[in-house]
Design brief:
The complex is a heterodimer. By secondary structure, chain A is an all-alpha fold. Chain A is built from 23 helices and no strands. Among the domains of chain B are: 113 residues; 49 residues. Chain B has seven helices and no strands. The longest helix of chain B has 97 residues. The chains are: A mainly alpha, B mainly alpha. Chains A and B meet through helix 17, helix 20 and helix 23 of A and helix 2 of B. Chain B: This is Radial spoke head protein 3 homolog.
Amino acid sequence: MAHAQISTYLPPNINPTQAAIAYGCRALPKLNEELNSEDLLTRQKALMALCDLMHDPEYVYEAIRIGFLESLKASLKDSNNMVRIKTTEVLYNMATHNIGRDGFLEHDVILALSFLLNDPHPLCRKNLHKAYKHLAQLPSGARGIISNGLIPLLVWKLHREEEEIQELILDTLAPCLQEDATEALSSRVVPFLKQKLLSTNGNIRSKAARALISVSIPLEGKIQVWQHDVIPILVHLLKDDEAEVQANAAGALMYATVTTKGKYAALDAEAIKPLLELLLTPTSKVRLNATKALTMLAEAPEGRKILQAHVPIFRILEEQSTEAVKRAAQIAIKVIEWKP
Amino acid sequence: MASALTDRTSRSMNTYTYTSRPRALPCHRRRYRDSLMQPDEEPMRYGNIMYDRRVIRGNTYALQTGLLPGQPDPLQLQKQQEAKRRALARKRTQEQLRPRTPEPVEGRRHVDVQTELYLEEIADRVTEVDMECQTDAFLDRPPTPLFIPAKTGKDVATQILEGELFDFDLEVKPMLEVLVGKIIEQSLLEVMEEEELANLQTSQYAYEEMRNAELAEVQRLEEQERRHREEKDRRKQQQWEIVHKHSETAQKIAARSFAQHYLADLLPSVFGSLRDSGYFYDPIERDIEIGFLPWLMNEVEKTMEYSMVGRTVLDMLIREVVEKRLDMYERKEDKHQSVNPDDERGGSGAMRDSPVSYHFQDLSMSQTQRPLPYDEELAQERKFMDEKELLGQDEEEN
């Protein structure tokens, strides 16, 4: 019988590892069937083809409508490494789109993914955490992650994973903690974050400080931050080399010093001087957070006394910078010059 | 090569058979120059069963019997064939008459020679080879080998020089455009996706900054508000306490002064009233008062009672005496008729007058009563009188 191939050599632009993508609207249903087939090779090829297709949001929408997520959930439990890795990659690609995220929340993919948290293959876990990270950017996604009880697990994992994955976990935790930090606080997230603040990797430090910002938004978080003596470390981080770390440390300080105890702890740790130095860095985030932190400290009488000498710097800031920094500088000046 | 004309059907009408021997197709191409030696062959009569008139085709229920108008009858056919034969013979004769190359000169021979570059073997006869094959009775038919046509001995080479077939640069342009276009399109898509993600990231970042700053501001203001409120509350409390104390103190002072004022004359009045009610007493005086005076009073009372009793007795006595005297007098008046009523009454009145009056009464009585016989009564009277005098004197002394 005649084959469609003319010669024994394949044409040069076909990827042999990918399944052939059918034309038009038949592409996704056919891939769905292939995904559920018993042959390992077929499944793998289908997954590879899917990875490429999922970059297009229209395909993502179509896929979710057809019910691809069920097949993907089933293939998450596959025993073959490659299948799992590719499935998580597909899910990660879908999570970069809003439709994908909504689909995740509807079809309960978070729970299915969480079974892979202990997967032996690091690439699989990495994709998994990337998917979680993108999901957490959406507020309802963050709530979904929290309601599935993943926060204590993630916090626990923070310690045991490799550095790249730690970064991803920290990125995931930050928005989740902004939504609801009570569960995390009860699972001892603050000591863990404190340890991460001292790590050698600059990215991890900055992300840990970012997570601390989210933790110290609610009152309970502020109290815990003060109790665990994180404030001196944050002050120390203000002198760090990386701008991102400085900015996030200043932000964490800004929230932690809202309470009176925090204020005095910061003043004891000599926070004012580094913060003043930070006011003149080029990064606007650093300036903004430093200004806000100094405003908090100026509420206390001792702080106000020290800062009264430095009001000119705030005036300079008021003139030159972006809108947010300008407003912050004005507020700072008002607070410093307030008489009871 | 026997002609394959059909057998005449005159032999038998029962069966019609047609056979045709396989033969190589004659090539009517004039290969060589016509030679004088070779006679022209008659054209082969061949029969193709597909185009045989006698094979009935089509519907058999409307057979054409007889001659068709378009076709000549057999007689005509034979005549035509003979005509053709005659024409052929005529052509042959004419060919023989055509001028040919002259006969070779003595000692020479004309030979046909090929003058082309490559010699060609000319053969009229087509090589025919009889082949037979017979499958081996005991073997299966082997699979047909791949048919590779044998080389017939013609080597042909050709060289295509640059630019002969097509202009590469011109032809490749559209293809290249498509290829490059597709690649760029795909990469643009990917880059755009990444750029979009990066843009989203930066805008999210900026938003987050603003959000954090605003949130911190809100919290700070809340905190400030709370502290101020607490401070205000505390101060108010303090102030209220001060005022309260103030008013209390004022009240206390006022009350104290009023009380002082009120009680200023309390003390003397207290002392006065106490003194008045006898709380400050001289013990001796008290003793006298408590002990002595009641006794004294009792004694005085007794004495008074005695004197009263005495007086009463005296009054009784007097009364008796007077009555008796009266009787006597009445008896006497019955003789004398003398009355002594006046002094009776006066005697029972004031005590001071009484001894004097009694004295007078005594004198009067004694004067008037001397002549009486009752001297014992008068002696009693006197005793009583003396006692009374004593009593009276005591009384007077008192």
